[in-house]
């Protein structure tokens, strides 16, 4: 748990009570934990009769479009002239990751950072960071209960979604007994577990499927098949008719191949490559991501590689594989 947790909670509660206008943001490329935490807070603050804005400057993945309140997301540009008393950033390790919303953050009277990433740099006025929490939504549940706020069905749906997605549907070794305890309490509130499951895990579009197939057609294996690497580019997105968010899940699909310890996914854009890594047992993904200024978790981390440093895709791949090979054999020798 966070050092000085009770003291920080009192400060947060005081700031919430005093604030009239509240903004909420998270990292770019939204996911379940990102959207779940933001939309849970949105409903809480609406219940408290606050003027509240949830910032989303990116495309919402199809799987999360069912979340209560998703229709109220706003672009940060619409808040440029708005006085913000309190701004809360969830599920984000550093301020650069909120993109254009950073300008709103810098003008807010008071800022709060609620997160669980090991690479968090504590960028806000108040930083609540639980690095042991497998999902920020689990940590957020504990924060809300500590402040004695009532959690309604919509809020519970958002929180459960974040926990489920960030734990790989309760499969990752980041989960702890408390994770299941929180999930049980959310189920008691009456969430529709079938609706959540169908939307998150059983609605892959034809376009997303085509993109996955195209990515897997160029899979490469390294280090005795312990590393699997795939890449896509903007042409792949266009030709399959996929959404930008449809690349989500590709890196996990590769990781799930038997024998793979480390999965690497590169999404090539005009000026940069978006790197995502996943591991199964012993590779620390953050050690790879940190080299490129990124971060995340031991089993899941990411970074951005700029083409000014790596002009060709092969340059980027060679550098990543060089780093990854070191981590593969260091970890292998350590556990054996």
Could you walk me through the main structural features you see in this protein, from its secondary elements to its overall organization?
- By secondary structure, the protein is α/β, with parallel strands linked by helices.
- Helix content is 40%, strand content 18%.
- The chain has helices spanning 5-18, 32-47, 102-107, 136-146, 153-166, 177-188, 193-201, 206-216, 234-240, 250-255, 285-289, 313-335, and strands at 21-26, 51-55, 73-74, 86-90, 110-115, 126-129, 220-222, 227-233, 262-268, 272-279, 295-296, 300-306.
- The strands form two sheets. The chain has a six-stranded parallel beta sheet, with helices on one face. It has a six-stranded mixed beta sheet with strand order 7-8-9-10-12-11, with helices on both faces.
- The longest helix is centred in the C-terminal third of the chain and has 23 residues, at 313-335.
- It is globular and about 55 Å long.
- The model has no long low-confidence stretch (mean pLDDT 94).
Q: What secondary-structure arrangement, pairings included, does this model have?
A:
Elements: H1 5-18, E1 21-26, H2 32-47, E2 51-55, E3 73-74, E4 86-90, H3 102-107, E5 110-115, E6 126-129, H4 136-146, H5 153-166, H6 177-188, H7 193-201, H8 206-216, E7 220-222, E8 227-233, H9 234-240, H10 250-255, E9 262-268, E10 272-279, H11 285-289, E11 295-296, E12 300-306, H12 313-335
Parallel strand pairs: 1-2, 1-4, 2-3, 4-5, 5-6, 8-9
Antiparallel strand pairs: 7-8, 9-10, 10-12, 11-12
């Amino acid at each position: 748990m966070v050092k000085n947790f009770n003291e920080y909670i009192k400060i947060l509660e005081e700031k919430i009570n005093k604030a009239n206008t509240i903004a909420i943001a998270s990292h770019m490329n939204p996911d379940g934990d990102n959207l779940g935490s933001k939309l849970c807070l949105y409903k809480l603050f609406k219940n408290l009769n606050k003027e509240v804005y949830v910032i989303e400057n990116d495309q919402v993945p199809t799987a999360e479009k069912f979340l209560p309140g998703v229709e109220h997301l706003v672009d940060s540009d619409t808040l440029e002239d708005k006085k913000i008393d309190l701004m809360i950033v969830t599920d984000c390790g550093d301020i650069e990751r909120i993109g254009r919303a950073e300008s709103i953050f810098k003008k807010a009277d008071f800022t709060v950072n609620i997160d669980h990433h090991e690479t968090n740099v504590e960028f806000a006025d108040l930083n609540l960071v639980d690095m042991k929490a497998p999902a920020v939504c689990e940590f957020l549940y504990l924060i809300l209960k500590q402040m004695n706020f009532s959690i309604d069905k919509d809020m519970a749906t958002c929180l459960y979604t974040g926990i489920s997605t960030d734990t790989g549907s309760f499969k990752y070794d980041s989960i702890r007994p408390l994770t299941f305890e929180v999930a049980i309490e959310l189920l008691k509130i009456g969430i529709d577990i079938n609706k959540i499951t169908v939307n998150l895990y059983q609605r892959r579009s034809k376009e997303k499927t085509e993109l996955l197939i195209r990515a897997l057609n160029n899979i490469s294996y390294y280090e005795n098949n312990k590393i699997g690497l795939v890449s896509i580019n903007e042409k792949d997105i266009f030709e399959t008719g996929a959404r930008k968010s449809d690349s989500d899940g590709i890196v996990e699909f590769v990781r799930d191949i038997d024998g793979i310890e480390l999965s690497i996914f590169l999404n090539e854009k005009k000026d940069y490559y978006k790197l995502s890594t996943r591991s199964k047992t012993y590779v620390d993904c953050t050690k790879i991501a940190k080299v490129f200024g990124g971060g995340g978790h031991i089993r899941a981390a990411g970074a951005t590689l700029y083409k000014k440093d790596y002009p060709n895709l092969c340059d980027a791949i060679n550098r990543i594989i060089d780093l990854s090979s070191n981590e593969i054999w260091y970890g292998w020798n350590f556990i054996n």
